[in-house]
Write a structure and sequence with these properties.
The protein contains six helices and 15 strands. With 220 residues, the chain is an alpha/beta fold. A hairpin with a 5-residue loop joins strand 4 and strand 5. The radius of gyration is 17 Å and the shape is globular. The protein binds ribulose-5-phosphate. The site of ribulose-5-phosphate has 18 residues, from helix 4. One of its GO terms (cellular component) is cytosol.
Length: 220
């Protein structure tokens, strides 16, 4: 059974006619977007706000009308993936590098539905290295400031160059070990000039749709 697929497709059922929907990024959100595309072909009327250029292209290929957050600043629902989900529904996101747009879109949504396989469900966050988006200018200084908050930070590389986000920034993958205080850590990192956004999504998820061997579990 493809756990990502069943989670994504189940979450697509939350989409109702007339909604403005945030379209997440990654291999699990992919299945939700695909299913929404099928429902659009069957007559569902929705408009989508993509969280990345990759998802924008996918939505357009599938015939989902794409609109901008600036035209529709209030979304009904966003469906997105996660790298880790803890008992309080706090998340680490950004494994796919789209964390900034994902966070802006999620903040604009009345409801955030997270889709994942059950391997992402953890007691405490931190086994997955925390992605932090930083401005390239002066990045070595930013790395030092980020590491001073208690981690080892590594610049994400693609090929031989720094991985570049849709916003023209770079990503630091930061090993903090177990994260005891996600909100406190997020705020400490955000105070650093050069940090654009962190992959900590604290208290934002409303519903988690988990794909398991036994089928889909919906938690809220
Ligand atoms: C992209 C993300 C993804 O949602 C996250 O990395 C999960 O991806 P996948 O569903 O492929 O495991 O945050 O920035």
């Amino acid at each position: 059974m493809d756990k990502k697929r069943i989670a994504g497709e189940k979450a697509a059922e939350f989409v109702e006619d007339g909604m403005i929907v945030g379209l997440g990024t990654g291999s699990t959100a992919y299945w939700a977007v695909r299913r929404i595309g099928e429902r659009v072909r069957d007559g569902l009327r929705v408009q989508g706000v993509p969280t990345s250029e990759r998802t924008r292209e996918l939505a357009l290929e599938l015939g989902i009308p794409v609109v901008s957050l600036d035209d529709f600043p209030q979304l009904d629902l966003t469906i997105d993936g996660a790298d880790e989900i803890d008992d309080n529904f706090h998340l680490i996101k950004g494994g796919g590098g789209a964390l900034f747009r994902e966070k802006v879109v999620a903040l604009a949504s009345r409801r955030l539905v997270i889709v994942a396989d059950d391997g992402k469900w953890v007691g405490k966050l931190g086994a997955f290295r925390l992605p932090v988006e930083v401005v390239p200018f002066g990045w070595r200084r930013t790395v030092r400031a980020v590491e001073a908050t208690g981690c080892r930070a590594e610049l994400r590389i693609e090929g031989t160059n720094p991985y570049e986000t849709d916003n023209g920034n770079w990503i630091l993958d930061c090993d903090f070990g177990t994260i005891a205080d996600p909100a406190g850590l997020h705020h400490s990192l955000k105070r650093i000039t050069g940090v654009v956004e962190t992959g900590l999504f604290v208290g934002m998820a409303d519903t988690v749709v988990l794909g398991t061997e036994a089928g889909v579990r919906i938690l809220s």
